[in-house]
């Protein structure tokens, strides 16, 4: 199936693309053909532990497919199998909810109280009033101040912001909005957030610490990459707060060894795009089966052109570290890394 821009018609028959929102209206994006065929699956993937990663993974897949157009369809099919893309739990239809008259404030209150199924209708109406961009920016203060364990409150939120251009006005928009609703409920955002700013931290310190201690499945790096990509959409205080979280998370000693990964720079490969591509391909094909293979590879590819050579050596080392699958070791239970249960969207 060939990708095309989604279009809709308003009364009077005029064809339009997109929806005016008054803030951060992003151009409609034509998906890569590989991604286009996976949009329905991504929007129907639901969480089985805490947060669904379907939309975020689809954006990662889109970015990687654009950055490495020479990767074959056979390679991508193998990478999707390795990421257990086909095994993610799914729904088939949007949630049915009564039609509600909704203001932005009433939508915020319903979501903060986890009122079901009205919250689904609230997000749909809020999106009509302010666009998905308006919803995302409403929660950006709290998400940047407290991205949560593994940084999902921020990275997944920004995944919905970027993913909206793939779904706006398309046939899977209702499924997309339902997954956004479930994320907002699971993230437990407050109806009113008034957090004090964190102590400012320099960006180079956050990058240096994150690549040395990337966290479980590289989540400190993943969150950092999403932040750096979208910092122009955020206020200086929001960026500063999120950088403070990266510094704190990358400096914490966790009880679980999988969270305390320490990375030394890779000295046996040149810092070239060829080395990056080789390491990312190994990661996607040989890493522990998990949907985070896609999001980590995307994060590392995103960081690469924006960091110095020494940090690039850490990027290569992170990819090589997570390309090692501990489930293949003798005595390891198939599909389960030692010391931590394996779930596609573990939190």
Q: What order do the helices and strands follow?
A: EEHHHHHHHHHHHHHH
- Structural class, judged by helices and strands? mainly alpha
Our Rg estimate from Cα atoms comes to 20 Å
What is the quaternary state of this protein?
single chain
Summarize the structure in short:
51% of the residues lie in helices and 1% in strands.
Explain this structure to me?
The chain is an all-alpha fold and 347 residues long. The protein has helices spanning 33-36, 39-44, 54-67, 73-82, 104-112, 118-145, 152-167, 173-187, 203-212, 219-229, 236-249, 273-286, 292-303, 309-322; strands at residues 8-9, 15-16. It has a domain at 203-325. A two-stranded antiparallel sheet has the order 1-2. It starts with 7 loop residues before the first strand and ends in a 25-residue tail after the last helix.
Keywords:
347 residues, disordered C terminus
List the topology elements.
Blueprint: E1 8-9, E2 15-16, H1 33-36, H2 39-44, H3 54-67, H4 73-82, H5 104-112, H6 118-145, H7 152-167, H8 173-187, H9 203-212, H10 219-229, H11 236-249, H12 273-286, H13 292-303, H14 309-322
Antiparallel strand pairs: 1-2
Helix pairs in contact: 3-7, 3-13, 4-12, 5-6, 6-7, 6-8, 6-11, 7-8, 7-10, 9-11, 9-14, 10-11, 10-13, 12-13, 12-14, 13-14
């Amino acid at each position: 199936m060939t990708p095309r821009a989604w279009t809709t018609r308003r009364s009077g028959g005029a064809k339009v693309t997109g929806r005016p929102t008054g803030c951060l209206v992003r151009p409609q994006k034509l998906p890569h053909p590989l991604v286009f065929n996976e949009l329905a699956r991504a929007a129907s993937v639901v969480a089985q532990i805490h947060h669904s990663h379907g939309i975020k993974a689809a954006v990662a897949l889109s970015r990687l497919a654009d950055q490495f157009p020479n990767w074959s369809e056979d390679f991508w099919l193998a990478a999707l199998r390795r990421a257990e893309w086909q095994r993610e739990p799914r729904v088939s239809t949007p949630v049915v909810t009564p039609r509600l008259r909704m203001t932005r404030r009433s939508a915020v209150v319903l979501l903060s109280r986890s009122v079901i199924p009205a919250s689904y209708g609230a997000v749909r109406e809020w999106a009509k009033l302010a666009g998905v961009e308006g919803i995302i920016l409403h929660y950006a203060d709290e998400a940047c101040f407290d991205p949560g364990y593994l940084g999902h409150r921020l990275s997944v939120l920004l995944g919905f912001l970027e993913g909206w251009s793939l779904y706006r006005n398309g046939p899977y928009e209702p499924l997309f909005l339902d997954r956004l609703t479930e994320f907002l409920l699971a993230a437990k955002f407050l109806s009113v957030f008034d957090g004090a700013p964190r102590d400012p931290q320099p960006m180079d310190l956050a990058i240096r610490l994150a690549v040395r201690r990337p966290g479980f499945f590289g989540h400190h790096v993943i969150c950092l990459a999403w932040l750096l990509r979208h910092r122009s959409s955020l206020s200086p205080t929001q960026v500063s707060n999120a950088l403070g979280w990266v510094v704190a998370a990358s400096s914490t000693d966790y009880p679980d060894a999988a969270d305390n990964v320490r990375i030394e720079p890779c000295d046996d490969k040149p810092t070239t795009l060829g080395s990056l591509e080789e390491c990312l391909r190994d990661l996607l094909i040989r890493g522990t089966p998990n949907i985070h293979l896609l999001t980590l590879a995307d994060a590392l590819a995103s960081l690469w052109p924006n960091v110095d050579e020494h940090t690039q050596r850490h990027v290569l080392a992170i990819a090589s570290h997570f390309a090692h699958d501990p489930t293949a070791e003798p005595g390891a239970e198939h599909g389960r890394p030692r010391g931590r249960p394996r779930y596609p969207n573990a939190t």
